[in-house]
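Renewal narrative, Specific Aim 1. Our central claim is that a sequence can be written position by position from structural information alone. The example that follows is taken directly from our test logs and has not been curated for this report. It begins with the structure tokens describing the chain, in the order in which they were read.
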């Protein structure tokens, strides 16, 4: 079964829009144990070092970028389930995205959509998709096809 405490989101910059903060709070309550860490934005090399240095040996790094692999919600849930008990860190870049170094270091690059979203919104969409993935795994009626 999927456990939110296995997931960590590393995101560059702060969420400044209150409606996104409110949305993230909803999903933090629905996903107890989900960790969201903000990394100070600035120089992309410093951001990269901060992301890479924070990954522990037992964690998989998943980089979110537009050229990454695309999943349906069902496929995303099944993919997470197939990872077993692995701890997963999702890295979300700032206004300049993620460096090539982070993308190359990642175990996988995924895309939330063919559309481009502001980095703040990407956090909210990812949190919702993690909740949806867990709901699918539980057989909850939250996800409808």
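The sequence written for that structure reads:
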């Amino acid at each position: 079964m999927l456990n939110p405490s296995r997931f960590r989101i590393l995101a560059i910059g702060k969420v400044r829009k209150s409606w996104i903060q409110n949305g993230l709070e909803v999903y933090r309550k629905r996903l107890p144990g989900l960790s969201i860490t903000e990394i100070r934005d600035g120089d992309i090399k410093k951001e990269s070092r901060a992301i890479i240095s924070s990954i522990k040996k037992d964690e998989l790094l998943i980089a979110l970028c537009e050229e990454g692999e695309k999943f349906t919600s069902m496929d995303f849930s099944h993919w997470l389930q197939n990872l077993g008990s692995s701890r997963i860190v999702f890295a979300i870049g700032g206004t300049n995205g993620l460096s090539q170094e982070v993308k190359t270091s990642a175990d996988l690059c995924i895309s939330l959509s063919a559309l481009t979203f502001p980095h703040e919104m990407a956090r909210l969409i990812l949190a919702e998709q993690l909740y949806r993935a867990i709901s699918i795994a539980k057989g909850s009626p939250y996800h409808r096809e």
